[in-house]
């Protein structure tokens, strides 16, 4: 069996692409390694989602998946390990623990990204014992306790605000004096009575006994060290694009993202990319949805001209 399109990843880009290609009556399968919806499911409230600012990432993901499946899209769990272009112009998509690869006329690679680690002493040792990369997943464990957040972007500040629903105190540790997040989020953070700011500082070490107890912090201006008491540490330092299955055939940017044009085309004919994995200015659910719709439309055009 040959698919018209295999979509790798079920985040907002992959799911939207599946809705569009299935509506166009293209034989489509979405392959997801972990959770349908990807990182979107970790967001408690998508307050910048047009038309419904109170919807959660999990609910939106569920709606998207149902819509895609209702249009005839196939969904399967699997770990894609390699994508290659064959001599006949089709693609082979290899999956872990699968003997034979899937074959498709086109591929939309929308595997997304994974949280970046801080790379500091104690991070791995206390992973699952106070160190977390997901506030929505773990915030409830820190009810009436003190937590720290590492990072200064949109995700870090939004997650810090979410943590205030549970924690008694949230300390944000950021290496600069200014944040990179949207101004409206910054303002909310600076005014919140439960949030403390430790700026111009970096976390050097996470310590404790059985669980996290404190963080050793270094001021990057003075070089002085101090301690921040915390029962938990939430790390939000950006994301690493998951490009391993295609990095041997696509052009990548210096920071490891896929180069794609405005039609989501890569340097390999028939291979498209969409979502956080491509080189672009803004990584948001709204922009990923646009990428997915564009990639799907480009796929439909490609198949109509190359596979008559």
Describe this entry's structure for a reader.
- This protein folds into two domains: 2-115 and 239-306, FAD/NAD(P)-binding domain (3-Layer(bba) Sandwich); 131-235, 3-Layer(bba) Sandwich (FAD/NAD(P)-binding domain), CATH 3.50.50.60.
- Strands 1, 2, 3, 4, 5, 6 and 17 form a seven-stranded mixed sheet that branches. It has a five-stranded parallel sheet with strand order 8-15-9-10-11. The chain has a three-stranded antiparallel sheet with strand order 12-13-14, with no helix packed on it.
- It has helices at residues 12-23, 57-70, 135-138, 154-163, 183-191, 285-306, and strands at residues 2-8, 28-32, 74-77, 80-85, 91-95, 102-109, 113-115, 131-132, 146-150, 169-173, 195-198, 201-208, 212-219, 225-229, 232-235, 239-241, 271-273.
- The chain starts with a strand and ends with a helix.
- The protein has 308 residues and is α/β, with parallel strands linked by helices.
- Helix 1 (12-23) packs parallel to helix 2 (57-70) and helix 4 packs parallel to helix 5 (183-191).
- The longest helix has 22 residues, at 285-306.
- It has six helices and 17 strands.
- The mean pLDDT is 94.
């Amino acid at each position: 069996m040959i698919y018209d399109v295999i979509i790798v990843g079920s985040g907002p880009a992959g799911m939207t692409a599946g809705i569009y290609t299935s509506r166009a009556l293209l034989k489509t399968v979405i392959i997801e390694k972990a959770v349908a919806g990807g990182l979107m499911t970790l967001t408690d409230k998508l307050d910048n989602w047009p038309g419904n600012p109170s919807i959660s990432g999990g609910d939106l993901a569920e709606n998207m998946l149902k819509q895609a499946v209702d249009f005839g899209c196939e969904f399967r769990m699997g770990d894609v390990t390699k994508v290659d272009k064959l001599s006949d112009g089709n693609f082979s998509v290899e999956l872990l623990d699968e003997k034979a690869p899937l074959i498709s006329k086109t591929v939309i690679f929308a595997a997304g990204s994974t949280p970046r680690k801080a790379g500091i002493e104690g991070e791995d040792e206390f992973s699952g014992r106070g160190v977390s990369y997901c506030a929505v997943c773990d915030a409830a464990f820190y009810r009436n306790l003190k937590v720290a957040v590492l990072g200064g972007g949109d995700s870090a500040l939004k997650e810090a605000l979410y943590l205030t629903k549970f924690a008694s105190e949230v300390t944000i540790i950021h290496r600069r004096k200014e944040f990179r997040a949207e101004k409206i989020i910054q303002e909310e953070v600076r005014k919140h009575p439960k949030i403390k700011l430790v700026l111009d500082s970096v976390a050097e070490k996470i310590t404790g006994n059985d669980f996290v107890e404190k963080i050793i912090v270094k001021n990057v201006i003075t070089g002085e060290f101090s301690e921040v008491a915390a029962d938990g540490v939430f790390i939000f330092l950006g994301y690493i694009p998951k490009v391993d299955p295609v990095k041997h055939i696509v052009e990548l940017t210096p920071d490891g993202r896929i180069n794609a044009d405005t039609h989501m085309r890569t340097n390999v004919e028939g291979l498209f990319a969409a979502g956080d994995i491509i080189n672009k200015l803004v990584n948001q659910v709204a922009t990923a949805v646009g990428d997915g719709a564009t990639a799907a439309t480009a796929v439909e055009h490609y198949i109509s001209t190359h596979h008559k």
